[in-house]
Design brief:
The complex is a heterodimer of chains A (about 280) and B (about 170). With about 280 residues, chain A is of the alpha+beta class. Helix content of chain A is about 35%, strand content about 25%. Classes of the chains: A alpha+beta (about 280), B alpha+beta (about 170). The structure holds FE2/S2 (inorganic) cluster (2 copies).
């Protein structure tokens, strides 16, 4: 298919250059990292930028490293790089587990975690993982740097807190202090390409502090704070009526091409139970 | 138009591309490489897979202008000096019917086997999960790769055994 829409292409080699272009073109610019969403959006005319700014030439954005008690994942870091990183595996394994469920190897070789959160689709597989670890999104414009906590990042389906003149430098994921077990449960129709029908991410620490978040069962990925509060300090034995009610009050799924809202509601309870048990067994 | 230089199947090529030229179209129409196929054009089917700096990517989701200075391998390149072991195995086991998905499957399998010459069934399934096939039901494809993995393991064990047995002989001479 020939892409009918014309645009300029720039691949800046410094962050300053990239920020200047972003300032100059604002809304009319699209940032290109892996391109696995951007190309589809341009081909299907959902986006028609005047300029595509390829950020893969900016060295700061290709960094994956430990910074104090956090891990910095630059915007150009692909899912494959995350999956293969011993650093991520040892300190925030939920990111590896969730990354394995994103699309297919051929997509993961190209697609980036930051690109994924910028697309901000409700079914975003990495949403729960980033929410249950304490994560900040670091963004910059010509005016300076800004840090946006993950729970303020998603503002609606496909909408984020990023401004038109800003570029995401990366995310800072805090490494949990206490010993912990994690799990990501994804419900999909088949592995390989499918978007999640529902997703549940869990971190349980050794003192039974629970962090739980959902994707694909509401407009944006979201922490289940009431559920966490109910569970905190207790060993998890299994579901009960009260827990089911709390879970149901945390989610607002819709019916779409992938499944009905009733099915999602039912499955989230099952997934929460399995997810917590799995996370506990990994403690 | 911008001039880009890339290495395609070991050969340096310089071509002119527009920013909105998609790599798949450039490979097929400007470079004459017809093995990458155009299936869905939105990253879902894997028919357009090529190796970009050794990693499988969907060429329908890459702008040609992005690969300036990069190295691309397609099935044409992989079989330059005859069919690869896994290609032979696909033929031997009748793995494909129409064959439309075959180039993509061969690219994904090649990437997997280069990293891990003895993958398990699960690892093979994960590597091929993004290659859709409308004909075969996948079984003969997975079985062929499993057979290659199995053979590699046998060869490996065989070589190790050879090593040990020769040192044994050395030992018994004492
Ligand atoms: S044509 Fe590229 S993935 Fe289907
Ligand atoms: S053999 Fe026909 S699509 Fe796979």
């Amino acid at each position: 298919m020939v892409v009918a829409h014309d645009f300029l292409y720039q691949k800046p080699s410094t962050l300053q250059e990239a920020l200047n272009l972003r300032e100059q073109y604002g809304k009319k610019s699209s940032l290109l990292a892996g391109g696995t969403d951007l190309l589809v959006n341009i081909k299907e005319s959902r986006l028609s930028p005047d300029i595509v700014i390829d950020i893969k030439g900016v060295p700061e954005l290709s960094i994956l490293e430990k910074r104090d008690n956090s891990i910095f994942i630059g915007s150009a870091i692909t899912f494959t790089e995350l999956i293969e990183s011993p650093l991520i595996k040892n300190s925030t394994p939920l990111i590896v587990e969730a990354s394995h469920t994103v699309a297919s190897v051929g997509v993961r070789n190209r697609a980036t975690l930051v690109g994924n959160i910028c697309s901000a689709v409700p079914s975003l597989d990495l949403g729960p993982a980033l929410l249950v670890y304490k994560t900040d999104v670091v963004v910059e414009s010509v005016e300076g740097k800004r840090v946006i906590p993950m729970d303020k990042w998603f503002v609606g389906p496909k909408k984020t807190a990023l401004l038109d003149n800003e570029i995401v430098l990366g995310v800072l994921v805090e490494i949990p202090e206490l010993k912990n077990g994690t799990s990501y449960m994804k419900l999909g129709r088949y592995s390989g390409e499918d978007l999640a029908q529902a997703g549940v991410g869990v971190v349980v620490s050794e003192n039974f502090e629970y962090k739980i978040a959902f994707c694909a069962v509401g407009p944006i990925p979201k922490r289940a704070l009431k559920l966490e509060e109910y569970l905190n300090g207790k060993e998890f034995i299994g579901l009960n009526d009260e827990l089911s009610q709390i879970i149901q009050s945390e989610i607002s799924p819709i019916t779409d091409i992938r499944s009905s809202k009733e099915y999602r509601r039912h499955m989230v309870e099952v997934m929460v139970e399995r997810g917590i048990k799995l996370a506990l067994s990994r403690l | 138009m911008k001039k880009i230089v890339l290495t395609v199947n070991g050969e340096k090529r310089a071509i002119y591309v527009e920013p909105n030229d998609v790599l798949l179209d450039v490979l097929r129409d400007k470079l004459g490489l017809k093995s990458p196929k155009c299936g869905c054009e939105r990253g879902d089917c894997g028919a357009c897979s090529v190796l970009l700096n050794g990693k499988s990517v969907r060429s329908c989701l890459v702008f040609a202008i992005e690969v300036d200075g990069c190295e691309i391998e397609t099935v044409e390149g992989l079989s330059q000096n005859g069919l690869s072991v896994v290609q032979e195995k696909f033929i031997e086991m009748n793995s494909f019917q129409c064959g439309f998905c075959a180039p993509g499957v061969i690219i994904s399998t090649t990437e997997l086997l280069r990293k891990n010459s003895t993958p398990t069934r699960e690892e093979i399934q994960e590597a091929l999960a993004g290659n859709l096939c409308r004909c075969t039901g996948y079984t003969p494809i997975l079985e062929a790769v499993e057979k290659v993995s199995h053979d590699n393991k046998e060869n490996h064990n065989h070589n190790i055994n050879k090593l040990y047995s020769s040192s044994d002989i050395g030992g018994s001479d004492e």
